[in-house]
Write a structure and sequence with these properties.
This is DUF5057 domain-containing protein. It is a single chain. This protein is mainly beta and 1140 residues long. The chain folds into eight domains: 35-183, Rossmann fold (3-Layer(aba) Sandwich), CATH 3.40.50; 188-301, Immunoglobulin-like, CATH 2.60.40; 306-565, 3-Layer(aba) Sandwich (Rossmann fold); 569-675, Immunoglobulin-like, CATH 2.60.40; 681-686 and 693-847, Immunoglobulin-like; 851-938, Sandwich (Immunoglobulin-like), CATH 2.60.40.3880; 941-1032, Immunoglobulins (Immunoglobulin-like, Sandwich), CATH 2.60.40.10; 1036-1131, Sandwich (Immunoglobulin-like). The chain is 12% helix and 40% strand. It has 13 helices and 74 strands. The chain has an eight-stranded mixed beta sheet, with helices on both faces. A hairpin with a 2-residue loop joins strand 26 and strand 27 (618-619). The N and C termini lie close together (8 Å). Residues 1-35, 91-105 and 444-448 have low confidence and may be disordered.
Length: 1140
């Protein structure tokens, strides 16, 4: 039979679909024509062999990087935001284990599959997979990606065979593919002044200095309206590009919300010398997918020399054997260990010395003596050189590496599967630490497949500095700068775990049939966080007399530099007061300790510090300062009672640790000298100088000096003075040279003589006159008492012209000590006594005027609508600026908000008033500054759906339809006219009806026929327009026509012929749900099948010749059954000539 209605519907649907498919392509063409920016599509192609399947993809605006799967799973580059698409090409999917010199790893790792999923698939970027790669259900490729074949929500994941790939390449080349919208989604970054930045790759000699500014001018293209869709900009500075950047490494942020052109700058701090890797990133951070683009580079920086204290533990060998010591010129060019930028202080101990010293130290104080002493440990570095290591010594290494996360290098055969107990012990201790896993292979036992060269894998610090050995080319391939040359090496005993993201393969051994890109099995050097492994050292402990080639020595130096840079570092302590070997007289009753603690790791902002006192190697009972939490970069300024009132040698032990326990200790040895004085000297600072000695640059502060006379017991006055009733201390003179760059504030006080200037340091002098004493009896003791007990006091007002630390350590008073008043004018030859004021420091800091404002792209929003917020923080030289975002509803309950430095996105799933707060702190300003913004969230409109007719004694479901959708609102329903309750109402739990109800969906029941019952719903202060419901008597059913013929295997939807009568019309949805369909008769083999797919799809399919009657029915609210019948005849077209 002819199903005309269905065919027309199908034709219309196809036309509509074609129109929808054409829309994005036309939109894209219009966008490209309007914008002069040329979007270059970047694709990553991964194949099992590394040979390209896309070599015929020659479009000018398409750039393809082709790498092997083995290389891909070894890479640790910035994958997020690097490409527009990923293609995984042909190759059998398997992962082979076992031993042998060529272990092919051609399946993807779960780690890399997760990255593709998170950075590309979930962000809507295009991923194309060769179907041939998905034939093995046990492979990671299959389990990770095969599920997307049937996922309609992921149209950006495509599966292609050979012919499909060829067609796709052709379409991309001529620009007709429907994938173009997927390939051109990301915002694109162009640094317009990049040539002004001297990159290390172009010039290894150019040095940036502290105080230089990195300035980036840039443009963001392929972006939406910036006012409603601002682009976030971040500048990262990190010590190594191979390690993912962290938010703590963000040094500057900006937001493009007006123009696509921007500028961002960073002033280089006074830090350690080395390389600084920069990354400028733009992100569409308010969109759901947060697509991004970035550019990066590296500069060479010369600041402070980096001094690294290293302990090398070497195997004990006989006198005739060659040492493994790096201090041996036969092993290492000693000039490589000490330069202007770094210095390696290497201490060499044999394993037996190491074992013994660890045991002795642990017995003495319960520590191992590594933490706080060394910055790095080097173990191994010899062919099968892992001799006996005690369990205690191994635990010392593990605590140093695992707990404090400081640097450890495991060199050749440090993890070696040998037969000796010593070898097995090293394997037990360090296998997991090194990130090595089973199965053990020993495929190169005794080095049958010796290697003499290596190939670079990843790009970063280890390959770049201090020696520039390899770099990354334009197609993401690591290439050599200097041809590698190594001494004999071989494969190691175990593979490395490439599922561990912290493992970074750097170099692989090549030759002897190895797959040089198989880092899991053929690694030569790799790092795992603070652990670095190198196969260097095989020739030591063998009959070979060859030396390490110069390239290999340079690589080992690079490895030491990277090992230190990539580890956790102990804090650095700079002591200002007292200085080493200072002398403090006992008449100074206090000792001021002033020091600064900084941690090189930006994530270690919270540090912990203590001060203790020792004398002759024993800790004193005086408390010192208990462990106190401070922020990195802050100065500790504490004054303690003199712990040695009778004098003696004093050690001030200052300790600081980070949260991992990495410890730094500074010992200041001074002498407390037994001495008495008749004058007590003190000085104080004005209250605007903090307890830690900080004051703002250019802010005036006052130094107040006090010279106070002490009473002198008669028996201490000296026999030559005891005959006099009156004594004097005469000709008291003050003298001080102020630190350079300290200027006066206003005029100098009267009576002070001044010489010099601020740039070199003013010299001040002042005559303070004399002090007279009279002999009196005090508490029965004869004593010379000052005639005036008041001290001599004077002050100076100064200000710091430069932000730095000022040391006040030259202030003194000289005088002629007590003598009779009759000799008040002593001869010029009279001896003078000199006393010093206690030393002190003042730290002048940049006090920025901090302002913070918070703006939003809209003050009023609707439910689930995104509001873009921008925080504008004004500061001059703040570093480490940190933004904290929060939001609360009108009850004070916290609600989610997504913030990224100075930008945030807020939306609420419920109407109401919300308050958004942003607070900002920095390395220089630990107290936060806050700003708030109130956002009102409401609805656009509220209507009612969907059914507007109900039959007597039946119910329909009514739904509140808010714009936008809002599931968490309180919806209240009412009859407009309460008298209409006689015709219908909202159902209650007992089946009755009522005039009101609550909920997003409610049930409405018809009671008596009515032309219209009006209802409304209210939510969020909005009331819907009245909605009219007709209450009808329940109708009868009829098929029209009620007879038809079909052929065997022909089918049609019987529902399309059913309608109501009395009144005539289509079947209401509420009625369709109640229909019951069946084939009349009791025979077991009917001529048709009846399948009810849903309430409006009832499929009849002919299966054999014959005639059947189909019955449809429903029960009215009164209990009466309504029925209709349809007769269908099935014919066999092969047996009869059927004509319509």
């Amino acid at each position: 039979m002819k199903l005309t209605k269905s065919r027309i519907f199908l034709l219309l649907s196809c036309l509509a679909l074609l129109g929808l498919l054409a829309m994005p392509i036309m939109s894209l063409v219009q966008k490209v024509n309007a914008d002069p920016f040329v979007y270059t599509i970047r694709m990553l192609e991964v194949t099992s062999s590394g040979e390209s399947d896309l070599d015929s993809l020659t479009a000018d605006n398409v750039h393809v990087d082709t790498i092997s799967m083995n290389r891909f799973v070894s890479l640790r580059d910035d994958f997020d935001g690097k490409y527009d698409a990923v293609y995984i090409g042909e190759g059998a999917s398997a992962q082979n284990g076992g031993s042998g010199k060529s272990d092919d790893l051609i399946d993807i790792t779960a780690l890399k599959a997760k990255e593709i999923t998170e950075y590309y698939i979930n962000k809507g970027l295009l991923v194309i997979l060769d179907t041939g790669y998905l034939e093995s259900p046990t492979s990671i490729l299959y389990t990770s990606f095969n599920k997307y074949r049937t996922d309609p929500a992921r149209p950006n994941v495509r599966f292609v065979g050979g012919s499909e790939l060829s067609a796709l390449i052709k379409e991309i080349n001529i620009g007709t593919t429907d994938l173009l919208p997927l390939l051109k989604q990301r915002p694109r970054l162009t640094i317009t002044n990049k040539s002004d930045i001297t990159d290390y790759s172009r010039n290894q000699s150019y040095l940036y200095q502290p105080g230089d500014t990195l300035d980036f001018r840039f443009n963001a293209a392929n972006v939406e309206d910036l006012k409603t869709h601002p682009i976030g900009v971040k500048l990262y500075i990190s010590p190594d590009k191979s390690v993912p950047v962290k938010e703590s490494q963000v040094v500057a942020v900006s937001t493009l919300d007006q123009s696509p052109n921007g500028e961002i700058a960073y002033k280089l701090p006074d830090a350690a010398s080395g390389l600084l890797y920069w990354k400028l990133e733009i992100t569409d951070h308010l969109s759901a997918n947060k697509l991004k683009d970035y550019d990066s580079g590296v500069i060479r920086f010369r600041g402070k020399q980096k001094v690294v204290n290293i302990l090398q533990v070497v195997p004990s060998v006989g006198n005739s054997e060659r040492s493994s010591s790096l201090k041996d010129p036969n092993n290492m060019n000693q000039s490589y260990l000490d330069t202007k930028d770094y210095k390696y202080n290497i201490t060499v101990k044999t394993d037996s010395e190491f074992n013994n010293e660890i045991a002795a130290r642990y017995e003495r104080d319960g520590t191992y003596g590594l933490n706080g002493v060394y910055d790095m440990l080097i173990l191994g570095f010899r062919n099968t050189g892992n001799t006996a290591l005690t369990d205690q010594a191994a635990q010392a290494v593990l605590q140093y590496a695992r707990d404090t996360k400081q640097s450890v290098i495991l060199a050749s055969d440090a993890v070696y599967h040998g037969n000796s107990p010593a070898a097995r012990a090293w394997e037990q201790y360090f296998l997991d630490l090194a990130g090595q896993i089973d199965p053990q292979k020993n495929s190169d036992m005794n080095a049958p497949y010796a290697a003499k060269s290596v190939k670079p894998v990843n790009d970063g610090l280890l390959a770049h500095y201090p020696f520039y050995l390899s770099t990354l080319n334009d197609h993401n391939q690591q290439t050599d700068i200097i041809t590698p040359d190594i001494s004999t090496a071989h494969n190691s005993s175990y593979p490395i775990n490439l599922e561990d993201p912290s493992i970074i393969p750097w170099y692989n051994v090549i030759g002897a049939g190895r797959d040089s890109e198989d880092s899991a099995n053929h690694y030569y050097t790799y790092s795992r966080g603070n652990i670095t492994y190198s196969a260097t050292g095989h020739i030591l402990g063998t009959p070979s007399n060859s030396h390490f080639p110069d390239w290999e020595q340079q690589l080992f130096v690079n490895m030491m530099y990277k090992a230190y840079a990539g580890s956790n570092h102990r804090p650095e302590i700079t002591v200002h007061l007292p200085q080493q070997n200072d002398t403090v007289p006992t008449y100074q009753n206090t000792i001021t300790v002033d020091y600064k603690v900084e941690d090189p790791d930006p994530e270690d902002q919270e540090l912990y510090t203590t001060v203790r006192f020792k004398s002759n190697g024993e800790y004193l009972t005086e408390p010192g300062m208990p462990e106190t939490q401070i922020l990195s970069g802050k100065t500790v300024h504490e004054t303690f009672a003199n712990p040695l009132p009778d004098g003696g040698p004093l050690t001030i032990e200052i300790a600081a640790r980070d949260k991992q326990g990495a410890l730094a200790v500074a010992n200041v040895n001074i002498t407390v000298l037994k001495a008495s004085a008749n004058l007590e000297l003190t000085r104080t600072l004005s209250s605007n100088v903090s307890a830690g000695g900080e004051v703002a640059k250019d802010e005036a502060f006052t130094i107040t000096y006090s010279v106070k006379p002490k009473s002198i017991p008669f028996d201490q006055a000296g026999t030559s003075n005891q005959s006099s009733e009156a004594l004097t201390i005469s000709d008291i003179r003050f003298l001080e040279t102020l630190p350079a760059n300290l200027d006066r504030n206003g005029d100098w006080p009267e009576g002070i003589s001044v010489s010099g200037n601020a740039s070199s340091g003013y010299t001040l002098s002042k005559s303070l006159g004399s002090i007279t004493y009279t002999l009196k009896t005090v508490d029965g003791v004869k004593t010379y008492v000052p005639d005036s007990p008041d001290p001599i006091v004077f002050s100076i007002d100064v200000r710091a012209a430069v932000a730095k630390t000022y040391h006040f350590d030259t202030s003194e008073v000289s005088f002629v000590d007590i003598h009779p008043v009759s000799a008040a004018s002593p001869s010029p030859l009279s001896s003078r006594t000199t006393l010093s004021f206690p030393k002190m420091t003042v730290i002048a800091v940049e006090r920025n005027t901090r302002t913070l404002s918070l703006t939003a792209d809209k003050d009023k929003a609707v439910v689930n609508e995104s509001v873009a917020l921008t925080a504008a923080y004004s500061h001059s030289n703040d570093t480490g600026v940190r933004y904290t975002w929060s939001a609360v509803d009108n009850t004070g309950k916290s609600v989610p908000i997504t913030g990224s430095q100075g930008s945030a996105s807020f939306s609420a799933d419920k109407t109401g008033k919300y308050t958004v707060t942003v607070s900002v702190t920095s390395d220089q300003s630990i107290e936060d500054i806050t700003a708030t913004k109130e956002i009102t969230v409401g609805l656009n409109s509220l209507t009612i759906g969907y059914l507007s007719t109900v039959y007597v004694d039946n119910t329909i479901t009514l739904t509140a339809i808010p714009d936008p959708d809002a599931d968490k609102e309180q919806y209240e329903w009412h009859l407009v006219n309460e008298a209409d309750i006689n015709y219908g109402g909202f159902t209650d739990n007992q089946g009755g009806t009522k005039a009101d109800a609550t909920g997003k969906k409610v049930e409405f029941k018809g009671i008596q026929p009515s032309a219209g019952v009006q209802i409304v719903v209210t939510a969020a202060g909005i009331t819907s327009p009245p909605f009219t419901i007709k209450v009808l008597s329940e109708p009868n059913l009829e098929f029209s026509p009620d007879y038809g013929e079909i052929s065997i295997d022909q089918s049609f939807n019987l529902y399309s012929f059913l309608h109501t009568i009395n009144p005539y019309g289509d079947i209401p949805s509420s009625l369709a749900e109640k229909l019951v369909w069946r084939i009349e008769g009791n025979h077991e083999a009917p001529a048709v099948t009846l399948q009810v797919k849903d309430k409006t799809t009832v499929m009849i399919n002919g299966i054999r010749e014959g005639t059947e009657r189909i019955k449809v029915s429903y029960s009215k609210g009164t209990g009466e059954t309504v029925t209709a019948y349809y007769t269908i005849k099935v014919i066999d077209p092969a047996k009869a000539d059927h004509r319509y």
